[in-house]
Each structure stands twice: as structure tokens, then as C-alpha cells.
Amino acid sequence: MTTETCQHLRRSLLDLHRALVELERGDYQQRHGPQSAGEFLQVMAFGEEMRWLEPLSRLITMLDEAIDGAASAAEVDATPLAVAQRARDLLGLDRDSDDAFKRRYAERFDASPALVHAHTAAIAALKAVGTSAPV
Asked: N or C, fewer C-beta in 10 Å, the chain?
């Protein structure tokens, strides 16, 4: 996997994450009133209701580490592909899953054209990487 392909995948996963955070922020503010960026960052970091986003956040962090060379030279080639395979599984829209991320993601996907757009871009980036599982 080339650095350019990794960067493209990273950008698409970040855009997807951003779309999800914006949806969550809108819902949170409807329930709790307006929040400053700092206040909402605290909710994102420590709020139990935002914990479902952790699998995607971890994948982005893992990909960042691989791109930055934090992994050993042998792992750098394998890690991005492993991250891509996990991302492909995570974004599979399994509406019957017991997994908190998959369940919430499917709910969000069904209700948000912006998320559908970000999802489509992420899937295209995953296809460019060459992951094998269908989405």
C-alpha cells in the first residue's frame, strides 16, 4: 500500500468520523443546550454516550501511527491493510449486529445524507486499498 493510498484512506476515515461527530453534537445540543467546542470535546472524550465512536477513532489512530512510521518497518506494510480490513468490517452496515458501533452507525446512516456521502467516499478509499471483504 502506497503512502498516497494510506493518506487517502486516512482522509476519508477522518471525514466519516467528522460527519458522525457533527451528527452526535447536534443531537447532544438538542438534549443539553448549546455547547462550546471545548465543552463538547470533553463530552466526546469522557461521555459514555459517545463511547460508541471509539472503534473508528482507534482505527484512525492506528493508521496515523503506521503512516508516521511509529510501527516497526515490518509492521508498516501490514498495519495499513489490517486497519483497512477492520474499517471495511466496521462500516459494513450490519443492522442486526450486537456491536454498539455497527448498530449506531447503521441508525445514523439511515438518517443522514451527509453520512451516506462520507461512507461512500470511505468505501471507495477502501476499494483502492484492495480490501477483500464486500461492503
From this structure: C
